[in-house]
Amino acid sequence: SLELDARESKALFHMLDDGDGLISPEEFVKGAVRLKGAARSQDVVTMMHDFNKLNKKFDKLFAALTKIGEFEVPPVRLSKGASV
Asked: If pLDDT is split at 50, 70 and 90, which confidence band does 32 have?
């Protein structure tokens, strides 16, 4: 049993939704398992969800800026002397 509280379903939906307004079975299971046991901290799960949504928005912004040629990608240093 995942021991999820049905009274908190709206908050749970928003935590599990990746921004498309739908929750796939995979999203539900992955998110519900995160809320179980030691990883039950809803604050951590909420922060992870918000981070993923922001990351997608930054990716879209980066793609748009790159497309119009107003953004140049700086080299990323992986280790001393290496770059991407």
From this structure: confident
